[in-house]
Write a structure and sequence with these properties.
Aspartate Aminotransferase, domain 1; alpha/beta; 17 strands; seven-stranded mixed beta sheet; about 375 residues; binds pyridoxal-5'-phosphate
Length: about 375
C-alpha cells in the first residue's frame, strides 16, 4: 500500500510503515507482509505484548456477555477488577476511580485535590508530561505542547526536580497539589531521585498539600516493581494510572486514599465509559497475568540486561551522551536530535522506537520482550548511530 495514501486528512505524522494489520508480542505485521519490531509497545500500553492471549480471550468473552453498563450499576468484571487493584495498591491508596485515559486520571486528581484542600494551585516538575486536556496540560512542562494553547488554567508552578529550595518556595498557601512522575517519560526518561520525592512528600504533609504521583507510564511493572513508587519510600495520596493497565485496551484510573474518599460526594465526578466492562475485562486479565507470571521482576531483569547491552554497544560513541532509565523504560540521550535516527531505525532496520524530548531515543518494549528482540534492537541502534 502506498504510504502517502495513509491517513489522508490526519495531521498526525506517519512513521513510514504500511498500515499494520495484525500484531503479536513485539512484532507488528503490515498489510504488505512486512514485519516490524515494536520497541514502543504502542507507548507502553501493550505491556504483555500485542494481543496477549489472556487479554484477547477476556475481551472476546466479555463482549459476548455485557459490553456496556452505567457507572452506578456494578458489573461482575468491574467489581473483580476493583478488588484486585485495591489488593495490589500500596500504602494509603485504598480506592479507585476508573476512566478511559491517562489525561482523565490527571484531571480527576486535580479536581479531587481541590475538593480535599479547597486550594487551586498545582506544583509540578520541569520536564513533566501529564496529558493534553486543559487541566493536565496546564501541569505539563514542555512549552512546545503547552504554549500554543495559552492562556490555559493559571494554576501551575514548575520546579526543577531535585531543587528542594525551589519546591519550598513554590508550596505556598494557595497550593493544594504536588504532582510528579517518578520517571519522566516524554520529558527524556529522567529518573527523579527517591530522596527528592521523600522530601517533597514531607513538605506536602507539613503544608496540607496533596501528594500525587503520575504512574501512567511507569506503573504496572514497567520499571521493575508493580508501581515505581513502591521502591522509593513514598506514599502518595493520589496515583494516576493508564497505559499498561489495559494491555492495549483504553482505560485509566485514579487511585486515592481514604481521606480523599471522605471529601467525595456522590455525583461530584464521573465518566460515561469509566469502568466499561470490556476495559475492565482487559485490565483484569493484565493484572492477573502480571502477578501470576511475576512480570515486574522480569522487567527489572530484562531492563538491566538491555541497559547493559546498550551501554556496551554505544561505549565511546561520540553521538551518545548517556544511557539511562529504570527497568524497561530506557533512554539514550544523544548530543543531537534523535528524529533522524528514529527514522533510520524504521526505514533501514524495521525497528520502531520513540523519542523523548528532542534528543532522547526511548525504548518502552513490552515487558515480555525476548533477549533476541533486545539484541536486534540494540544492534540496530548501534548501527544507525555509528
Ligand atoms: C506520564 C504520563 N502522564 C499522562 C499521559 C497522558 O495519557 P493519555 O495519553 O492516555 O491521556 C501520558 C501519556 O503519554 C504519560 O506518559
Amino acid at each position: 500500500m502506498d504510504i502517502e495514501q495513509q491517513g489522508a486528512g490526519s495531521w498526525i505524522p506517519r512513521r513510514g510503515t504500511p498500515p499494520i494489520s495484525r500484531a503479536s508480542g513485539c512484532i507488528l505485521y503490515d498489510v504488505d507482509g512486512g514485519e516490524w519490531l515494536d520497541m514502543t509497545a504502542a507507548f507502553g500500553v501493550a505491556c504483555l505484548g500485542h494481543c496477549h492471549p489472556a487479554v484477547v480471550k477476556a475481551v472476546q468473552d466479555q463482549a459476548a456477555r455485557v459490553m456496556a453498563s452505567p457507572i452506578g450499576l456494578y458489573t461482575e468484571t468491574r467489581a473483580e477488577l476493583l478488588s484486585k487493584l485495591v489488593e495490589l495498591l500500596p500504602g494509603k491508596l485504598e480506592h479507585v476511580f476508573l476512566c478511559n485515559s491517562g489525561t482523565e486520571a490527571i484531571e480527576a486528581g486535580i479536581k479531587f485535590a481541590r475538593l480535599q484542600t479547597g486550594r487551586r494551585g498545582v506544583v509540578s516538575l520541569k520536564g513533566s508530561f501529564h496529558g493534553r486536556t486543559l487541566g493536565a496540560l496546564s501541569s505539563t512542562w514542555n512549552p512546545k505542547i503547552r504554549k500554543p494553547f495559552e492562556p490555559i488554567l493559571d494554576i501551575n508552578t514548575f520546579v526543577t526536580p531535585g531543587d528542594l529550595e525551589a519546591l519550598d518556595a513554590a508550596l505556598t498557601e494557595d497550593v493544594g497539589l504536588f504532582l510528579a512522575e517518578p520517571v519522566q517519560g516524554e520529558g527524556g526518561v529522567n529518573v527523579v531521585e527517591a530522596e527528592y520525592l521523600q522530601a517533597a512528600e514531607k513538605l506536602c504533609r507539613e503544608r496540607g498539600v496533596v501528594f500525587m504521583l503520575d504512574e501512567i507510564q511507569t506503573g504496572f511493572g514497567r520499571t521493575g516493581t508493580m508501581f515505581t513508587h513502591e521502591a522509593l519510600g513514598v506514599e502518595p495520596d493520589l496515583m494516576a494510572m493508564a497505559k499498561g493497565l489495559g494491555g492495549g485496551f483504553p482505560i485509566g484510573g485514579l487511585a486515592y486514599s481514604g481521606s480523599i474518599h471522605e471529601a467525595l460526594k456522590p455525583g461530584v465526578h464521573g465518566s460515561t465509559y469509566g469502568g466499561n466492562p470490556l476495559a475492565c475485562a482487559a485490565a483484569l486479565a493484565v493484572v492477573e497475568t502480571l502477578v501470576a507470571e511475576k512480570i515486574p521482576a522480569r522487567a527489572a531483569e530484562m531492563g538491566a540486561l538491555a541497559k547493559a547491552k546498550l551501554e556496551a554497544a554505544l561505549e565511546g560513541n561520540p553521538k551518545v551522551r548517556e544511557v539511562r532509565g529504570k527497568g524497561l523504560m530506557l533512554g539514550v540521550e544523544l548530543r543531537e536530535k534523535s528524529a533522524p535516527y528514529l527514522a533510520a531505525l524504521t526505514k533501514d532496520h524495521q525497528v520502531i522506537a520513540l523519542n523523548a524530548g528532542q534528543t532522547v531515543l526511548r525504548m518502552l518494549p513490552s515487558l515480555t520482550v525476548t533477549e533476541d528482540e533486545l539484541d536486534r534492537a540494540v544492534a540496530a541502534i548501534a548501527t544507525v548511530l555509528s
